[in-house]
Amino acid sequence: MTDDRSPLSRLSDQRVEYGARGEVAAGTDPFTFFSQWYAEAQAEIREPNAMLLATASDSGPDARIVLLKGVDPAGFTFFTNYTSAKGLQIAADARVALVLPWHDMHRQVRVQGIATRTSAAVSDEYFAARPRGAQVGARASHQSQPVDSRAAMHAAFDRVEAEFADAEVPRPEQWGGYTVAPHRIEFWQGQANRFHDRFVYESADRPAALDDAAAWTVARLDP
Ligand SMILES: Cc1cc2nc3c(=O)[nH]c(=O)nc-3n(C[C@H](O)[C@H](O)[C@H](O)COP(=O)(O)O)c2cc1C
């Protein structure tokens, strides 16, 4: 039994009223809409680029947070280890979903699309821009594999540091980006009485350029 004074016992009483932002109208194309919402999120909340990435796995759906590191009309880009659990799952089934959960703004953006690896040049460029410690860490980690101890992790880190003591740390081959090319994007704005605004853009189940207004149909959904 949960203690009555525990925050967990009060979850059903926890209620936030939405709607202070006013109503939302659909924009012309999803790129313009997303750009505008992202600019507002960046001004108002911490880590607006933290997003949920959902993948299909043999044991059912899987999900974790990754950082959005680029958006252009081709899609949404994040970086990771290609041999991690998510990397192997994407290799088997490239259909993924993203959720940007902007709670403090009573907003979320949901994306469904196809993930493809970024070019080596794009991965190299982003890897080179990372702090050196993160570069070393990326080389020292076999992401999602079991490791004996924190000490073993530090030893692996130190080995990589020693190996590249006087040199730039090269991007490991198994580390790089994915771009999610969307065919469905939903913008959700919380409203009073749980009567929210939802606009969904769809491109006939095929990924389309986000700024190509003619490729997208937009519909308002019931909350
Ligand atoms: C705020 C936050 C940001 C993260 N950003 C990334 C990221 O950009 N890339 C990444 O590979 N993992 C990132 N992670 C870690 C992942 O959530 C996850 O633990 C890791 O990628 C292993 O996932 P997998 O075993 O499903 O492959 C982040 C976690 C948090 C909480």
TrEMBL record:
Keyword match Kinase: no
Chain positions recorded as substrate binding sites: 69, 126, 130, 194-196
Co-factor requirement: FMN
UniProt cross-references to InterPro entries, sorted A to Z: Pyridox_Oxase, Pyridox_Oxase_N, Pyridoxamine_oxidase_dimer_C, Split_barrel_FMN-bd
Cell membrane listed as a keyword: no
Enzyme class: oxidoreductase
Keywords: Flavoprotein, FMN, Oxidoreductase, Pyridoxine biosynthesis
Residue ranges of every copy of the Pyridoxine 5'-phosphate oxidase dimerisation C-terminal domain listed in the record: 175-223
Task performed by this protein: Catalyzes the oxidation of either pyridoxine 5'-phosphate (PNP) or pyridoxamine 5'-phosphate (PMP) into pyridoxal 5'-phosphate (PLP).
NCBIfam families listed in its UniProt record: pdxH, PRK05679.1
UniProt name for this protein: Pyridoxine/pyridoxamine 5'-phosphate oxidase
Source organism: Brevibacterium pityocampae
